[in-house]
Amino acid sequence: MGMSTARPPTAPLTLSALLAPITAAVSRQSGLFWVIAEVDGVANPNGNCFVDLVERPAGAADPVARCLGIVWPAHAHLLRTFEAQTGHPLAAGMRVLIRVRPGFHRRHGFSVSIEGIEPSFTVGEAARNLRQIRAALQQEGIADRNRSLPAPADFCSVAVISPADAAGLSDFRRHADRLEAAGLCSFRYHTARFQGQSAQAELLQALRTIWTEIRAGAAPDAVALIRGGGSPTDLGWLNAHPLARALCLMPVPVITGIGHATDRTILDEVACLSLDTPSRVSAHIQDAIARAAREGARDLQHILSHSRRLLARSREQVDRAAGTVRLCAGSRLREAAQRLDRERERVADAAIAQVRRARQDSDSRLRAVLNLGPRQTLARGFAIVRDAHGRPITRAARMPATGPLTVEFSDDSRTVHPGAHNDPARDPARDPA
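User: That's the sequence. What structure does it adopt?
Assistant: Structure tokens below.
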């Protein structure tokens, strides 16, 4: 942007001279006006109450208007009346209906003097906001989703969301650190603001981180949402639909310990379990672990006792079965011995019979062999031809061409010469006698 080429006036205005017409104009408009605004901060120095007032559209982070409101000591009773009727002092996050007188001072700028506060409007605004959140959750069908999850009977892993360095976190860790040191439960801590303009965004980011861990297979047994140690008026930052919706959709039980027994937020309403303080949340976790351990020990004793009874019963059954087996075995052995004796007798009888038959067959064969002797053969009309050495000639091819042969008959023998003319008259075989 280039430097202006306009020449400065010879007599420039002072700042007070510039602001004087503005002061006069505001003064001419002086009067009382009812204004709806959101409190962005409260300070009380020197007995005066300075209130930062803003106008912020729904869902917007940045305001579209801002000014300073002042409660002068003459109107300090307005603050006491407001706290008595709403239950909370005037604090950031509240929507208020106030009666103001605008003013402009050349040293302090524009401000409004607060000369009236309508407590019923703030109470009604908070109630209306809660009604709208409840109605939206019911319309989505998720209002009871986390609340209907079964509360954990035991804890091995817990995700914790808490403001950094909060007093309530120290109370929580008095129990939690002992449990973790004993290896009974692990805790993963996530930090987030619970009040102020960034509270909603930081809490949602912590819940998204836990969602990511759950999808990665590292689901905790519960999510503990703890605060503690803050002003009750700061709870208004937690009454937001996005936060309530995120808790409703959390797939594991949510336990709240936000720090006030009488002041409940929408988060307490939708959580699976709502406790008063962070220390009560950690005590609940410790008690659940101890109760589960006692039940486990009792169950173990029951299992051991039942196992002993079963073992004794089994031993009795085994002893009875062994006796039965011994009786049956003796009976079976006797039966087997009897069968063996009978089989032995049968085999012996069969062997004797076989020997007898073999002997008879042998005798028969011997008799047959004896009946086939030379004399028996000669008696049946056969003759035996022997060579000069007395050996039987059984084949014609072995008959010698010369030399004497002996022909043996049943009653006598004759000598013959092959090729010679043998006198039949001298051959007794030819003798009619």
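The longest helix spans residues 278-371.
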